[in-house]
Specification:
The protein has helices at 8-18, 46-60, 76-89, 103-113, 151-157, 166-182, 204-208, 218-228, 235-247, and strands spanning 2-5, 27-30, 95-100, 123-128, 133-134, 140-141, 162-163, 186-191, 194-198, 216-217, 251-255, 263-267. Helices cover 37% and strands 17% of the residues. β3, α4 (103-113) and β4 (123-128) form a beta-alpha-beta unit.
Amino acid sequence: MIHIVFQHADVEALRKSFELDPTMEGEIVEIKDEYAVGPIKEIYTEEGIEARLQWWKEVLKDGHYNGIADDGHVDDNTEVKELKKKLTENPGEIVWIWAAQNKHDVSGYYWLMSQLKDFQGRLFILYLNNLPFINEKGNIFYPTSLFQIQPKEFVKAKKLARPITLSEFEIDPDEWAKLGAEDKGVRLLEGGKKLVQKGYDYYDDELVKFITKDWQKISKLFQQYYGKVKDTTGDAYLLWRINEMIASGKIEMQGNRQSMKEFEVRLAGTEAPKVEVVEEQTA
């Protein structure tokens, strides 16, 4: 059995469940790219793959995440090639794709399954779509990410496993291709597996609400943003948007972009406070 997840924190959460139910034990493959943002036009062609890589290099070039796109730790295309090889060489092998109700997992699901039609009948989806689970305090909640559920809840969730149908293998890749043809940069989950798209600047307006006339560290800015905004995205993308707003003159920066604790921003056009000078009067 091969398990596939779409967030790094999901890997360890799922692995812990194997101790409770050895029948679930198997290889865990993490799809690492964030397919809810960035270009996906012609994403299975060499040109499309290269365009996405160059986009990530541009996004990550300034600041804290500089160089990550070049270090080779994200190579989902090679992961899929290896997966296809294992399924071809082992006809009895099956794949469980785990996804929670969030745009990251669902976008990753579309990207992945659209390449695996040849293995229909051996791919299963476990989609935590508006399903209640029990948290550590014994209360019912509705998780939006796999890592939020306890190991024993994974054991219960295995009952959700169902084959991806032939109809889904026909319809879902078409939906993904339509999104690619729109050539927009942000994907949002409307409900179920329905994705809609917005422009690359979608998160700007909400983010800038937390930027004031006073200098503020990026780390504190993100803490406020994530604590109060429901529809968010990752640090790397937000840092890129901040750098874009700096370049456009909308906000100003000071400090070290390589460290979110030393990188500060404020609204542009903010004047330094005037200091009144009182002259000494001589007798």
